[in-house]
Amino acid sequence: MEIITKKRLVLASNSSRRIALLTILGHRFDIIPHSIDEGIPGNALPEELVQNLAFLKANDVAGRVDNAIVIGADTVVVHNKNIMGKPKDTRDAKKILALLSNSEHSIFTGVCIIDMPSKKKLLRNERTRITMKHIPEEEMEAYIRSGEPMDKAGAYAVQGEGKKFIKKIDGSYSNAVGLPLEIVQEMLNHFINHNADA
Length: 198
Fold this sequence. Notes:
Blueprint: E1 8-11, H1 16-24, E2 30-31, H2 46-62, E3 68-79, E4 82-84, H3 90-100, E5 104-116, E6 120-132, H4 137-145, E7 166-170, H5 173-177, H6 181-197
Parallel strand pairs: 1-2, 1-3
Antiparallel strand pairs: 3-4, 3-5, 5-6, 6-7
Helix pairs in contact: 3-4
């Protein structure tokens, strides 16, 4: 069932994964991509990094709309305290997958929702732990040739062919894909209920 709110709902992303996930919640929404550089500073804590980038993305789009609720999100993979974004090239993708092979890593997603024109905001983050199987080199190379890893944090897609490398998921599945629906709905309810009362 489609949920219609009084305010326009905007997703600050053109990620097909985030669009598909937000659609699951049943809200009608518009898509306005952000223009933020997603570079990763070397000394950031993952929880702070994803929340900060989520805020920058939401804020960037919020400045272009009025009377809207804007959702921004950012996802990183963390392995042995090393923060991994999207691979720069195929060599980088292979390096990342080799590190993740036969080990555990965490996926952090930060979510920021900004209400306009009040500029009130909520910030949250979610963590999911993933245990990977051993990935044979030939399977790794074939996967990289498929192109799937190239625009994914951690160089693999939980919901795509990359799932064959996963041994165990501990936590929110939707968070591992790129948008933790459980906390997104809680955050949206805060603003939708507040605006309904206003």
